[in-house]
Amino acid sequence: MLRYILKRLLLMIPVLLGISFILFSILNLTPGDPARAMLGEGATEADVQQLREEMGLNDPFFVRYGKYVLGLFQGDFGKSYVSGRLVSEEILTRFPTTIRLAFCGITFAVLVGIPVGIISAVRQYTIIDNVSLIATLILTSMPGFWLGLMLILTFSLKLGWLPTAGSDTWMHMILPTITVSAASLATLIRMTRSTMLEAIRQDYIRTAKSKGAAEGRVIFKHALRNALIPVVTVVGIQFGGLLGGAVITESVFAINGLGYYIVEAVKMKDAPVVIGAVMLIAFVGGLVNLVVDVLYTYIDPRLKAQFAKG
Hints:
By secondary structure, this protein is mainly α. It has 13 helices and no strands.
């Protein structure tokens, strides 16, 4: 198991380098000049060129990328073009907010989605199953920014129950949590339902029922445990998606997290900030997937034997 974990961690290095190269290329090939954006439209061309020289923007593309990669291996993410502060400091001050939002979102999706999916499977084609199907279709089809705006209009402006923006208290987190978890909630409901339906139709479930086992024991001890592996996989993938999806939610609710910071950095073409932030999100997403793989072994002991053999 330890060798497998180390192997996965090493494989993340070329993935992160690939992400950094793609982002670096996009930010440097798209129109716009960071120096011009920093100095403003009223700055002279001489001032702009002097700032570009100080920032190293006049160097060839691969020279700049090579310097950036060397800095990464030394733990240096560079400095923000806008604030002049270290990118690592800027990111670490905002990343906990994004993690908290993503954690609240995936927790809400798990606590609601898995039980609803189980009930839909056990009570297939009933009114509960039909309502959950309609709800998942609606949640999947709604864009996150539109849902967030509708929640603000309804619960903040019209009813006055919840604050419109920020993340200072638990009440501030209610609307952003619902917004960021909507698509994940729908996915978990449908995935849990389909895997549970497949599990409860297996021969061992019929055998357990024929021996007089209680329905609750059959569902939760036998069927659910065997249906959890695909669900756990989806939870891990969705958590990584929520970290990226927080960009939209944080912008709608004016939450000073990493996603909102990325949006502002893209507007200013602040390449070090964008690359550093996205690479951190990718790294955390890779760690979450690794944790999910390890959890498989506790859900299904047969997989632990395969890891040991490998």
